[in-house]
Each structure stands twice: as structure tokens, then as C-alpha cells.
Amino acid sequence: MKIIVWVACLLSSAAAYPLVQSRQTEDHAWRAPTATDRRAPCPMLNTLANHGYLPRDGSDISMDVLVAGLKAGVNLGADATKLVGAAALKGSTTGNASTFHLTDLNKHGLIEHDGSLSRADTSSSDNHSFNATIWAQTASHFTESTIGLGTAAKARKDRLTAAKAENPTFNMTDGDVQASLIETALYLNVMSNETGVTAVTAWVQKLFQQERLPIEEGWKRPKGEISVATILGLKVLMSSRQVRTSNI
Ligand code: HEM
Ligand SMILES: *[C@@H]1O[C@H](CO)[C@@H](O)[C@H](O)[C@H]1NC(C)=O
Ligand SMILES: *[C@@H]1O[C@H](CO)[C@@H](O)[C@H](O)[C@H]1NC(C)=O
Ligand SMILES: *[C@@H]1O[C@H](CO)[C@@H](O)[C@H](O)[C@H]1NC(C)=O
Ligand SMILES: *[C@@H]1O[C@H](CO)[C@@H](O)[C@H](O)[C@H]1NC(C)=O
Ligand SMILES: *[C@@H]1O[C@H](CO)[C@@H](O)[C@H](O)[C@H]1NC(C)=O
Prior knowledge:
Blueprint: H1 2-27, H2 43-50, E1 61-62, H3 63-74, H4 78-90, E2 99-100, H5 132-139, E3 146-147, H6 149-166, H7 174-190, E4 199-200, H8 201-209, H9 228-239
Antiparallel strand pairs: 1-2, 3-4
The structure holds protoporphyrin IX containing FE (HEM) and 2-acetamido-2-deoxy-beta-D-glucopyranose (5 copies).
Keywords: Heme, Iron, Metal-binding, Oxidoreductase, Peroxidase, Signal
Organism: Karstenula rhodostoma CBS 690.94
Family: Belongs to the chloroperoxidase family.
């Protein structure tokens, strides 16, 4: 009896193993987008699409698919995803109000704003793709192996100041500034080495520059679910470091 159970287990695990293996190496392997795959101004959503946690073609994404992708990929809670996801759906061009394309997020004023850390302002010809010149301004603050709240807040503030100086049509509402702080809180938290506050510089670089999860560099999916409260808490800490519209 025992032997039969043991043999059955062995057989079933041998059968299951290639499946698990292929899920890990195939389904969530990083692959660059093709020319027809749609991408967003958000480095994280693009990363998740490049790993197949969101549809690789970046198209026809429902709230359920978005929530599941953010949860499986980086352990962002459904409450947090739904907050931003609701705004994303408002820009839907899919013909189905319950889905959106990643490119729908390029629409200025929905979530997309001026003064991004790695994208040019809306008045420039490409206002949504990664821009190495702009990222270099931001990354010039990241001189150490980790990025703390103070450094991240300063990088955020200096980029706003630079964008305002360079762009005569620069326009950020106070809500945009708050959203931009939330984006900084998100990358600090997701790319932190289990501290939840201090990010690993090399991981943040991969997220922005390659839109890739830095798994081979040692990053692991956060163990605890990331909540709205955590992110807003980080935002408040950064705001207290004077990153406000009045300071731009
Ligand atoms: C843990 C999850 C997430 C992380 C770590 C993250 C990270 C970021 C970061 C760092 C930026 C700023 C890019 C820059 O300034 O150059 C950004 C921008 C953006 N994110 Fe996300 N994001 C997350 C989830 C989401 C979700 C769920 C949505 C919507 C469905 C979203 C939509 C956007 C959009 C539209 C922008 C563009 C804002 C701009 O104009 O710069 N993000 N995100
Ligand atoms: C619209 O998208 C939702 C979510 O994926 C889906 O349940 C629904 O069937 C779609 N409606 C149509 C008319 O295709
Ligand atoms: C990057 O942004 C800068 C500043 O807005 C702009 O001059 C440059 O053309 C952009 N580069 C690309 C490749 O879009
Ligand atoms: C933003 O970029 C898109 C696509 O590159 C372009 O069609 C649009 O005109 C730009 N927005 C503005 C306000 O210039
Ligand atoms: C800036 O944008 C906001 C909303 O997007 C708009 O209400 C306001 O009029 C704009 N300000 C200028 C100076 O264009
Ligand atoms: C993350 O933290 C662990 C334990 O503190 C340490 O061993 C590891 O080197 C750190 N990884 C990085 C990339 O900083």
C-alpha cells in the first residue's frame, strides 16, 4: 500500500515538474515587447507585461486581470490596484468600457502628468516612453547602493524643478504632485530589500531602464501584501520633506 502511494506520488510529481518548470521559465520569463505590443508610461506595468503577469500585448486589460497581475507579480493589494485601475478605465479606447490598453494610459491628465522621473513632458514629441536623458537627471541622485526616503524625495523634487525650468508649458496640479509622490513611494517599497522603505539602487535602475524584474540581481517579490495605507504612509513621510507644488 505504502509503496503504491509512493510510486503514484513519484509519477505525478514527475509529470507535474515540467509544467511548473515551463511556467517559471516560459510564462514569466522577461521578453522585450514586439513592435505591436502596447506599453504605458508606467515602468511597473510595462515590466509586468514584459514578464507575462499582464498580457504581453498590453491590450484589453480588465480590472480583474490588472488586480491579479499586480498581486502575482509584486504583491500589490487589490485595494491599491483598484484605486489607480479605476482611473485607467476612464481612458479606455478598446470599445469595451471594462477594459483598457496600456497605451490608453498615455492620455495626459488621467494619471499621466508632467515632471516624470523618466519621461518627457506632454508637450514633447514622445511623452510616454523611457527617456535616458531625463532618467540621467533623476539617477544622478542615486550615488549610493541604496535609495532612502530623503534621496528619493530630493530626486522627485529636483526633477519637478528641472521640468518647470525647461518647459514653458509645464503644468502640474497639486493632485499630480501627490500622484508623483505615490509613484515614488511605490518603487521604493517594491524595490526595497525587505525594509519597505529603502530601495536597492541597482534594482530600481533595472525597473526603469530595462522594464524588467531584477530577479537575477537578487530581488524577490515582497512577502507582505503592499497596502494603500503603506504607500500613503510613505507619501506623507516624503511630503514632510517639502515636496509640494509651492516648493517647485
Ligand atoms: C506596485 C505597483 C506600481 C509601481 C511600483 C509603479 C511605479 C510607477 C513609477 C515609479 C512611476 C513614475 C514614472 C516616472 O516618473 O518616470 C509610475 C507612473 C505611472 N504609473 Fe505606475 N506603478 C505601479 C502601479 C500602477 C498601476 C496599477 C497603474 C494603473 C493602472 C499605474 C499607472 C501609472 C501611470 C499612468 C504612470 C504615468 C505617470 C507619469 O506621467 O509619470 N501604475 N508608476
Ligand atoms: C468587456 O470586458 C469584460 C471584462 O473582460 C468582459 O467580461 C465582457 O464580456 C466584455 N464585453 C464585451 C461586449 O466584449
Ligand atoms: C528626451 O527628453 C528630452 C528633454 O525633454 C528631449 O529633448 C529629447 O528629445 C528626448 N529624447 C527622446 C529620445 O525622446
Ligand atoms: C504626446 O505624445 C503623443 C504620441 O507621441 C502625441 O500624439 C501627442 O500629441 C503628445 N501630446 C501633446 C500634448 O503634445
Ligand atoms: C493646468 O492643468 C489643469 C488641469 O489639468 C487645468 O485646469 C489648468 O487650467 C491648467 N493650467 C494652465 C496654466 O494651463
Ligand atoms: C539584502 O539584504 C540581505 C540581508 O540583509 C543581504 O544579505 C543582501 O546582500 C541584500 N541584497 C542587496 C542586493 O542589497
